[in-house]
Design a protein that fits this description.
It is found in: Cytoplasm, Cytosol. It is built from 14 helices and nine strands. By secondary structure, it is an alpha/beta fold. Helix 13 links the parallel strand 8 and strand 9. Bound molecules: coproporphyrinogen I. The site of coproporphyrinogen I (1CP) has 24 residues, from strand 3.
């Protein structure tokens, strides 16, 4: 693995410190999907360029990444991209339809699976690395930069369903009827995700998050069989491959709706466990107390609709319930497109108003 370039030194290292279990003056806060849709300046950029044009042009991806940081006192940036760049790099067509989301017009089938272009897939994602490098210089060390990837099961779901789905029943049919093909696909994705995360780290990502957004469609049995081993393998291999460099890049796992495997999240090899908004911060805080992981979350994205005073109260309540030890404050899922920009500021500033002892 090539060493990171001599980027400007990190000034605000709150988030990285907390991810590693170190003390800070204040709690770090950032917001999943902070760079996109709800920002008027992003909508304006989208009128000029397509979604993937923005992703694939480092200057534009950098511009979108920095947008929320100009407005809010966030403790991290996240590179502008999408989890579906991997299926795209594997040769699948991905369209971003406004108001709908990602659509893959030719979904994966058992028959066409052999058409996936595994060779060279990661090199086709070089533009994400370039966007990260550009953004690292533009950030001037203000805050750390997140890289990210979809998790194997979540990507499998989009590839087979051809987009989002209410049930993921086509993808789950693979798990029940075609276990061998499922494992073959999950193996391919695990390999590509690992190399893709390493590419992002090599190009300047200071922390990386794996989004298993579709965990909620599975149960404990399926998650044990088709998710946990792959998530473990990704963390193990990424850590192993960066061990000999000076880079100590924390890993974050966010498995939306994986309440049935919450305890298992601690031992997968990730430094931070994302907690979705359906979970009770007090119970989760107690469950993970004295375990060697940092928690991240978990305000309901819809809490941003509440009146200002109410929003502040809910934020404080959540933090008190989690406990301030090893906590990265975030929403419990990505921010919604109709979120109020002022509410985001209220949320972020409320977190920073707390002085830790
Ligand atoms: C981290 C990230 C993602 N997408 C985007 C980012 C980075 C920039 C940012 O901060 O917004 C841009 C990102 N991705 C998208 C947009 C809007 C598209 C546009 O501008 O036209 C933006 C800004 C499109 C997109 N892409 C996706 C959806 C969801 C569709 C569904 O309902 O299943 C949607 C709507 C897939 C996707 N994409 C992502 C996830 C994981 C997080 C989560 O669970 O919310 C998922 C599931 C992750």
């Amino acid at each position: 693995l090539i060493m990171q370039q001599p980027f400007p030194p990190l000034k605000n290292d709150r988030l990285i410190r907390v991810a590693k279990g170190l003390k800070t003056d204040k709690l770090p806060v950032w917001i999943m999907r902070q760079a996109g849709r709800y920002l008027p300046e992003f909508q304006e950029l989208r009128r000029e360029y397509s979604f993937f044009e923005i992703c694939q042009t480092p200057k534009l991806a950098c511009e979108a990444t920095l947008m929320p940081l100009k407005r809010f006192n966030l403790d991290a940036a996240i590179i502008f991209s999408d989890i579906l760049v991997i299926p795209q790099a594997l040769g699948m067509t991905v369209e971003m339809q406004p108001g709908v989301g990602p659509v893959l017009p030719k979904p994966l089938t058992i028959e066409n699976m052999k058409m996936l272009q595994v060779q060279g897939a990661v090199s086709r994602l070089q533009y994400v690395g370039d966007a990260i490098t550009t953004t690292r210089y533009a950030l001037k060390g203000e805050v750390p930069l997140f890289g990210f990837s979809g998790a194997p099961w979540t990507l499998m779901g989009y590839m087979i369903e051809g987009g989002g789905s209410k049930t993921m029943s086509k993808a789950k049919k693979w798990l029940y009827c075609h276990p061998e093909a499922s494992k073959q696909l999950l193996d391919i994705l695990t390999e590509v995700i690992t190399e893709f995360l390493l590419l992002q780290i090599e190009h300047g990502a200071q922390i990386v998050q794996v989004f298993d957004s579709s965990a909620e469609y599975l149960n404990r049995q399926l998650y044990f069989k088709y998710c946990l081993p792959y998530l473990r393998k990704i963390a193990y291999n990424v850590k192993r491959r960066i061990r000999d460099t000076k880079m100590d890049v924390p890993l974050v796992i966010f498995a939306k709706g994986a309440h049935f495997c919450l305890e298992e999240m601690e031992s997968l090899g990730y430094d931070v466990v994302g907690i979705d908004w359906t979970l009770d911060p007090e119970k989760v805080g107690n469950l993970f107390r004295d375990k060697n992981v940092t928690l991240q979350g978990n305000l309901d994205p819809c809490a941003l609709y509440a009146p200002k005073e109410e929003l502040i109260k809910m934020t404080m309540q959540m933090i008190k319930q989690f406990g301030t030890d090893r906590l990265i404050v975030n929403l419990g899922h990505g921010i919604y497109p109709d979120a109020d920009v002022e509410a985001v500021k209220t949320f972020v500033d409320a977190v920073h108003a707390i002085e830790l002892k």
